[in-house]
Amino acid sequence: MTEREATFPATGMPDRDWWSALWPDPEGTLRALGITPDMTVLDLCCGDGWFTAPLARMTGGRCYGLDLDPDMLAQAREEVARAGTRVAGWITGDARDLPALLPEKVDFVLIANTFHGVPDQAALAAAVAATLKPDGLFAIVNWHARPREETPVLSQPRGPKSEMRMTPEQTRAVVEPAGFKLDKLVELPPFHYGAVFRLSPA
Predict the structure, then answer these.
(1) 196 CB contacts (<8 Å, ≥6 apart)?
(2) What pTM was computed for the model?
(3) Beta bridge partner(s), residue 197
């Protein structure tokens, strides 16, 4: 078991074959969530870099990759290098320590396929709020709250346990008390949604 899996249950990285089957157009997904070239972005719990590489390409390198697991960050570095792009920085650390880890405030924080396994989701939302610029955005990509047997990838049930999955309403209930308001919900077929929150004025 990796350090990431021990700290954030059911958030292990899939193999590349089904990752690409599930997310064949990661850049299109990022555009749908609202990421634009002028933004500085944090890929939070970036894993093996499947979204980090297109983020780096879209923003001209104005993005950071953060993960608890050094082995995952090494894979993300390789993914970004394969894409022929770069990032502003790689950070190894616990996502809940964001304010102390990130060297600058950012416009957009993305966390994909991981939020369901965060032990203290409210604390993480507060940490994200502290790292965003005024009016910044926090996007959470979650599996829909459907039974795991109903979300197959390459003919096998995939994703977190059914009981760990969160509806958009459950996600809002955790995130909005940290100072956010839901900006939009984005359908990400076949099995995900993106909840994009905007940091409210103090």
Answers:
(1) 33, 34, 137, 138, 139, 140, 182, 183, 184, 185, 186
(2) 0.91
(3) 138, 182
